[in-house]
Amino acid sequence: AGLHIWGCDNGHNEVSLDGVPLYGVQHLLGFFSVFNAAHFESMTFAPSASMTSTANRLGGMLRMDTPASAPTHITGELSVGPFSSQGTLRLPIGRHTGLLLSVREAYMNLLYGHWLKTDESQLHYAFGDYNLTLLHQASDRDHLTLNLYGGHDQASYDASRHQSETAAKWGNLMASATHRHQFAGGAALQQTLYATHYANRLSFDQEELHFSLPSQITDMGYRAQLETGRWQWGLDASAQRVCPQSPELEGPYHAGYTAEPVQHIQQLSLRADYRLPLSDTWTLRPSIKGVLLADDLHRLHLLPAPTLSVEWSPSRAGTLLLYLAREVQPLFQTGLTSAGLPVEFWLAAGRHQQTQTAWHASLTHEWVVGGGRWGLSTSAYVKVLQHQIEYGGSLLDFISDHYELGQSLLHGRGYNTGFTLMLTRRTGRVTGWICYAFTRSRRRFTEAAYTGYYPSNHERPHELNAVATWRAGKRWSFGATLAYTSGTPFTAVEHIYLISHKLMVEQGRHNDCRLKPYGRLDLSANYDLQH
What is the C-alpha to C-alpha distance for residues 330 and 305, in angstroms, rounded to an integer? Predict the structure, then answer.
């Protein structure tokens, strides 16, 4: 989508639907969003942790928001594409109640199955998304929103020549209920109950051999936010049940693996934000936040996470923002790849690592010129991280009779630093932006075999994103998205050999190699039947 996150680590980001977290949100390795755009009213994006979120994350935020009011008449949208189609129906079911329904399904196997072959082996891939939202205005001051979401991905590779099949499945389920009350004095209270679940499984079948890598995470919680003038109060109570990657193998060649224990953690977060205008041009925004964590070893931790924002807004020089924060995150994402593929899994703080923390500082300058038509934004940041985890193993490790997850994890610390430059066209027939980002993301591990700093699994030093929309007349509009990034690092295998019928693998320096740069150009054309 052309959105750059400071630091580039997928597992540090909060992706949510009306503030309810979703995990593993992607289709076709990220080429398709999991969100039906027509179902939502707005999107909130922050390239780094935001004071407006109660989530305990170190990275950026992407939140999709449903409409605040019910539809007054029946409307709908239908989008037909070469790989998938989606439709949205907005239906009033009373004076103060409305229903939104969105469905998307892919048909790549049906239309392109003949071309999805490699060496006479068949590739299958399908995905789908389903959104259901009920909006009810109980009174002038009370609004109720019920959300249901389900998404699935299924990919398989049928190598009939070798009598084997490789498959991957992943998907989300989410349910939430949100009530917002507006008090007579102007204060507002919003409360949300939610449950969200994500699971994935990579499997391989060949004759009598069956191998799979399942994992899942379930998150249940309650959130409340109270806005009273210059104050904003937040509470977040949640419990996570995490099943880390636990290999399973059935067949005559292996005795089996020891199942990885299920992890249970609980989090209670309290925060208070205050907006303090110091003058016409200076604004101070301090925030006090504390997290009470019960990890999977039943130990209690009190984790402070304060933030401070200083804003200077002179009339002609734009806006200058200094942001300082200490951030905490009890959840980790890791796995065999560094591209956010479905074989990655979640871990909880406790048995494998302490809660990860970060000290963050950033300086951003935004300048709007040309009567609001153009915007120029520059940012520089540094983030120092503690208690980091990266996966140091490979698929070949599962051949070993003594595979243990803990032996494949690397523990350490690191830092993210970089800057961004972004030019935006805000009004007119042509709108969009172009953004260049430079990033360094390095890690240092405590294991004896690893000395010095290494590129993190998600480091992309150079990233260029451009997005443009051209409205040509009343009915036609055209769009383009360009993304070009440096390739991500990986660890190359140097030697493979057999000793006493056991496969031995020698790997090179950690993340010393890098994939080729990645580039993509998406083009679209839209025609409005009604205007």
Answer: 13
Q: pLDDT tens digits, residue range 1-60?
A: 567 788 768 888 888 999 999 998 878 766 677 788 889 999 888 888 765 566 799 988
Nearest to 59 by CA among 452, 360, 365, 401: 360
pLDDT tens by residue, 108-161: 877 777 777 766 777 888 899 999 999 999 999 999 999 999 999 988 888 766
Structure tokens at 358: 């970060």
pLDDT at position 53 is: 63
Look at the block and give the residue holding tokens 């303090």.
276
The model's pTM is 0.90
Distant-in-sequence, close-in-space partners of 64: CB < 8 Å, separation ≥ 6 = 16, 17, 18, 35, 40, 43
Rounded Cα–Cα distance for residues 339 and 331 (Å): 18
Q: Rounded CA gap, 400 and 528, in Å?
A: 59
In degrees, to the nearest 5, what angle opens at C-alpha 19 toward C-alphas 13 and 23?
45
Give residue for tokens 């079911």: 93
The H or E element containing residue 110 is helix 108-112
Give how far the C-alpha of residue 297 lies from the chain's centroid of Cα atoms, to the nearest Å: 27
Contact status, residue 385 vs residue 411, Cβ threshold 8 Å: no
Q: Are 18 and 64 in contact (CB under 8 A)?
A: yes
Q: How far apart are CA 22 and CA 527, in angstroms?
A: 33
- Contact between 416 and 385 (Cβ < 8 Å): yes
In sequence order, what are the residues at sequence separation of 6 or more whose Cβ sits closer than 8 angstroms to the Cβ of residue 280?
none
pLDDT of residue 160: 67
The answer to whether the beta carbons of residues 172 and 150 sit under 8 Å apart is yes
* Sequence letter at residue 322: L
Share of the chain above pLDDT 90, in %: 56
Contacts of 383 by beta carbon, 8 Å cutoff, 6+ apart: 6, 7, 48, 58, 358, 359, 360, 361, 415, 416, 417
The per-residue pLDDT for range 50-89, each reduced to its tens digit, is: 655 667 999 888 899 999 889 989 999 888 888 888 999 9
Alpha carbon separation from 502 to 253, 303, 407, 499, 505 (Å, rounded): 13, 46, 18, 5, 10
Beta strand 462-472 with 476-485: parallel, antiparallel or unpaired? antiparallel
Distances (CA, A) of 332 to 57, 221, 239, 269, 322: 10, 19, 15, 18, 28
- Nearest residue to 246 (alpha-carbon basis) of 276, 281, 277, 201: 201
Q: Which of 87, 84, 111 is nearest to 101 (CA)?
A: 87
Instruction: Write out the two tokens for 82.
Output: 């070469």
For the chain, state the CA radius of gyration: 24
Q: CA 91 → CA 37, 96, 143, distances in Å?
A: 17, 12, 17
